[in-house]
Amino acid sequence: MNEPVDLQDSHDDSGHDSAFGVLGIVARRKSFLLLGLAAGAALGYLYYTRQAPIYQSGARLLILKSENNLGNQYIGAFSRYQTPQERLSNHIMMIQSPLVVEQAVRDYELDKLPSFAGMSNPAPAILGGLFVEQSDAYADALDLSYRGRFREDCQIVLDAVMQSYIKQLNATKSVTEDTVKLIEKANKELLDKLAQQEKEYRDFRTTAPSLASDPKELALHQDRLQRLEDARGETVLAVTRLKSTIESIESAMERGADREALLLMVDRAGELTGRSGAAAGSVRDTTSAGIVERLLPLVLEEQTLLETYGADHPLVKSIRRKIETTREFLTSQLAPSGAAGGERKPIDFLAMYLESMRQELETISRNDRELAALYAEEEKAVHQLAEQDRKARREQAAFEATDESLRSDIARTQQLFDSVVKRLQEINIAADYGGYNTQVLSTASPAGQVEPNFSRIMTPAAILGLLFGFGLATLVDMADKSFRSPADICRQLRLPIVGHIPAFKTKDSKLEQVNSKLDGTLMTHYRSKSQVAEAYRAVRTALYFTTRGEGHKVVQITSPAPGDGKSTLAANLSICIAQSGKRVLLIDADFRRPRVHKLFSFSRDVGLSSVIGGEAELMDAVHTTEINNLFCLSCGPKVNNPSELLTLPRFKELIDLTREKFDFVVIDTPPMLAVTDPSIVAARVDG
């Protein structure tokens, strides 16, 4: 029955708080906002009364450029395309310049005015209060104003500044025509000189030297030179190896070494020198089948067998026959083709091999000489390219230095020409070639008060006061921990809300016309179709849903503190239940401040205390009411020990008896935070 339920999604709660939080604070704490508004207004008014008055005088000048033919073509074009803002900006600067203001102070003795009494130089003070702006974006008119603390001085100061400006403007026209012509002559000479220098520079650029040699070409020759040097190194190494091999074989032959062993040495030397596939291979190729390769192992095998067996051993004889057969075949293959079969001479393989090595040595030496010639040519080409590159770089550096010098000359001439043109522009503005005609559209007006401005002071003061009041209200509202909405109750107590009773008036003239003794707060009886009665019926409906189980008949009504309306709720809820056709008993268990007998206008002489004390029976103490099916049991005579009275077994028996005789029992108990009576009753009820 007391399970917490969510009335709305937490997201909706946060959205509600963000949308109505500020409005809620304003509605609850209006007094703080009014207090802040009053404080801000009071402080603003105090500030307004303490401010010294400021007065302002105004005037308007019309500035028109007169026609004159003195300007040169550059300045004429410059002035022709100036906007009114650009033309008038110089005049604004001139009016607000110390030159004009100090001249006005001297000519009109402004330092003797009361505004500047005691000041040695009033010009800075005048500049601080002098304002000049364009009257309109498309008009050549200026609005002048001056602010000061003395009404009469404002008009005098503004008029003096205007007259000083007009005098200064006319004085600048004293610049002579000769000065202008001299500057124009210098301008023309510089222009011609600049054109000549630019022509010389273009001619110089046409004689630019060729670029330095391509670094890739030089790198290519250097790489080729390195490869030739590597090849020569390999050739020298091959020549050295061949010479060493030839000398070794010739030395062995002179010592009379075994020829078979020499052949084996030749074969191994060919493998070491890389001739196994070249020079040494030529011997194998001439045997048609590489007989030499088969002969040498046979000779070696013969020597091995002789070390173990005698010369007549069958194995030795067999290997010798193989050697002889191989030699005969080799001799027949290598003999000259024109010789007779019996005239062939044995071939000296060592001599043949030595001759081939000498031929190869000659070939390698010839290749080395060719590589040396190529190396010399490449080295010469590399030196030539390097020299060309150095020469081209020197020429390029000299060209760049000359180019930089010419460009510097052109830049200096251009800078001088620009300064002359700028000077002509300044003369056109300051000396005013064509001249400006100034006309006073409105003289300095009598000064009027502009500060302090009541609205400009009070409006911000009121806004700041409201903000202060709102901040104070927010702090107070944050410190207040009371419930402000049903959602707060549900969120803090984690209990369901069965209804929401709106506030209503208890005194109504229409209720007095009804012939009834019941109290006016029983809205469910007097105004059964009102919004308040509907709210009580919503509580009844929620109660039905939460007590639909068996045995949920006895309901306790209480509140946190006195004055919350618990007795009114208990009475109206009982009426709603009775109107639905159920027998209802309303028990007043609030012995501290009983209200039920007053609401229904009957005596409390006999009641709950009498029944618990055994002085009366239940049905004798129950009162009938004007409302069908509704019965009431008052608290009875006042007792000194209400808490002890409710703990008696007789009270529990009374509750059990009411369950049998009535469909619903509503018990009105004291506030929970005031006494312990509600806690005692809570243990004996259903909800």
Task: Write up what this structure looks like.
- With 687 residues, the chain is an alpha/beta fold.
- It has four domains: 69 residues, no CATH class; 121 residues, Bacterial polysaccharide co-polymerase-like (2-Layer Sandwich); 128 residues, no CATH class; 185 residues, P-loop containing nucleotide triphosphate hydrolases (Rossmann fold), CATH 3.40.50.300.
- The chain contains 26 helices and ten strands.
- The strands form two sheets. Strands 1, 2, 3, 4 and 5 form a five-stranded antiparallel β-sheet that branches. The protein has a five-stranded mixed β-sheet with strand order 6-10-7-9-8, sandwiched between helices.
- The termini are close together.
How much strand? 5-15%
How many separate helices?
A: 26
Would you tell me the structural class of the helices and strands? alpha/beta
CATH topology of the largest domain: Rossmann fold
Mean of residue pLDDT values: 78
Largest sheet geometry:
5 strands, antiparallel
Shape: flat
CATH architecture of the largest domain: 3-Layer(aba) Sandwich
